[in-house]
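Possible regression after last week's pipeline update?

I re-ran a chain I had predicted before the update to compare outputs. Posting the input and the new output here so someone can diff against the archived version. Not blocking, just want to make sure nothing changed silently.
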Amino acid sequence: MMKLALLTTTLLLVSVISGEILSGQLQTNDNWYLLDKFCLTEEDSTFIVNVDFSKTPNASLLLYSDLSTNWGTIESYPYSSCYTRLRSVSTTININTPELMGKSLDVGQKRDRWWYLVFANCGSNDGSDFIIDIPSYSIIMKNGGDSFNSIISADQQNIPHAQIFFIIFFFILLVVTMINIVFLVQRNLESKVMKLFSVVLLFKILALFVCLTYWAYFFHQGYGMDAINLAGNTIDLVSRSFFILLLLLVAQGWTISPYYGGMGTKVIAAGVFFVILILSICIYLIPNVTTMPTRMYIFFYDTIPGYALMAFFLAIMIYFMVLSRSTYIKQVDHIKKKFFLFFGVTFTFWFLMLPISVALSHFLETWVRQKTVVIFNLCVDSIFFLIITVLFRASKTNPYVHILNLDQQEKGVRLDDKGYQGEASA
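New output (post-update):
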């Protein structure tokens, strides 16, 4: 808890960085080198550029907007020559434009827009050992917004705010879950569901903590380490896989029904867990460590491999529905029937949220896509995690908790004949 409080305080207090900073030196024998990309807001966005072109005076800093006639041309013809790529440039900064150096340059545009920054030298290297030899450069990009939003790319604005809110929310859920587990154990009731759910929450909180570590580093240094963010999102996939496992087990009647599935269904549930986990991590990581850094944000499910993964995910949803219906039919107790009907219908909607999220990603404009998808998925998980917490709360007035042991006669637990409000007795 102290680490969480320290990280949150750091995020709230850091304000020394005036914008995202790209700085360093560059030596390469490529005549056209993509440095980075950044999304600028419609209003109050600025550039401050300082570049030392002394060793390769023929080199230039090229700025490409995301228009189809600018960066769109580069993507359409990825193997075009250096001179051909110069025709699509939006702005050129070089040794012949000293008036653009060291000054805050206002960017006028009609909407939030991606800008790609490239160093290029289509001529000679003027005696240098490298085609592009930049002893030092510093590029500061600033957006409109509060102290957080002004220094990050427009497509990511409000993500840190949301992650701070939801890590606190999920931590509260974890505390409530741990208290529930203690009460369930003390009352000799089943706690396995809540124990597995606590694992889901632990990985979720860890994922958000790692992502916030990325932002803390970003706000302190002026640039981020992508590996940290990738690690956070990968851990989140682990949490998601465990949640799928929990849903499949409960749909079979785990700890609830005497008709809990046999060894075959248990093996299938475990297999689904490992397959969805491995596939998700591979399909997420491969494009993000190869081609994705040069492209605008794409939700990894909104790719050709991602569509195959989503088809598998929807197949899991159908399997979940079949399990829930089968378990529902087998029950003779109307309380159990009510439970499995509610559980099956409710969490089918959780599965359906993924294709909705992919649709949002596919049809939204690129400059709002990432923050919308990230915040939407956090909201969805928070709602359904809260339902699990309430559904299995350790309350004497909660019939679903008592149902967990209705037929486990070996533990001697039953409901009082007076109804739901009665005490469980041995």
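Follow-up from reviewer: compared with the archived run. Residues 192-221 form the longest helix (30 residues). Marking as no regression found.
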